Amino acid sequence: MEYLEYIKNRVEDIRNVHYSYDVLSNYSKVEVEQIKSIAKTNSSLRLAVNLLEKKKRIDRSFVFNQFKYEPLSVAFWVAMLWGHIWLSNLKRAAGDKSLEDKLKDVRDLLKKSDLKTAFLSMKGEYKGHNNKIPGINTSFLTKVLYFMKDSYPQPIKPLIYDRWSMAIDAALLYSGVRPKDDNYTLLFTLRGGFKAPEGPKSVDELTMYQHYLLRMETLGKRSDLNVSSENLEEYLFGTSQRQKLLWNDNNPRFYLQERFLRPLCRNRVTKHIKGQRVVFYSNIQATTAPENNGDKAKASVERELRLDEFRHSLRGYLINRGYERFKLFVGRDKMKAYCEIYPASVVLDKETLLLDRHFLIKGGKGQKYYVRYFSIADINSAIQLMIDIKEILLANE
Question: Model pTM?
């Protein structure tokens, strides 16, 4: 079944969509204690946690309602916890002493219909309005814009734009919904969402976000749907894979990932839509970098693809070994690749960092891999894990 057909067959569900859940239960008991510990020195976060403990199950309307009142920082924390922010990023954001002023400035920009400046200011990319909040990336800053949408007088409202929204965007673009004439290439992977390769055909996140809003608005206004883009986004967002009983074809996220996008990625489909080119990929070795972007851009794309494929293989290994709740970072600094693995309950700070173990692995082509980890079991299993990681690293060299 095509994606648009799947959506069309669920119009009534879209119009009546209502998801609610216990926000704090999505964190482990240890993580909740870590959040409360951080909240001891942050009154707004403390109020937000108290609200969530009293309310238990909440829906989006509850979060929207919090943004009607000041301090806005309380609503901000409710939204971040609703979106399941990582604790390391929560701690970074909690240290921002000017959070309330930044949120008020973003709201004022939205009231002036200036979504562009509001977005760029939260990215820290607009001179004169620096509303960058530490630890808050596009996935979470667009949650702020979304929950402040009542302050935005324009008909096309801000929506959330994270990797699941990017998956929706990729499916809509593939299906021919409101393509633009802009001449650029997008790479798509299930685990990372969209990547825009560097070079003359590159595109920035703001443009991608604006195109997504237009696509959702266009789809919602179709005569066979006639639904709001907000209802459409909430329904298509679906529910998490963590809720095993709901992981089936009736869950829009399951259908989008498993039935529609995964075959495209597995078969490395390339789709040309007007001036745009979308490459769906899952296997680095069989992926070709976009043409005409120059040697530097090609190298950049290939590096990112290799890192993404490594993340995929390592994460799968950890899950198979029974490490269900963990955090994994993989990156590259000059000629040195690195990965970090530690329990999801760990909040990174100077004291925690003193507990780490690390070593260097010499890879092919003169590269070095730096592995840092935190003990997630007894020391023997941690050592064995490092040996296995070394094999994965060298296999992906």
Answer: 0.73
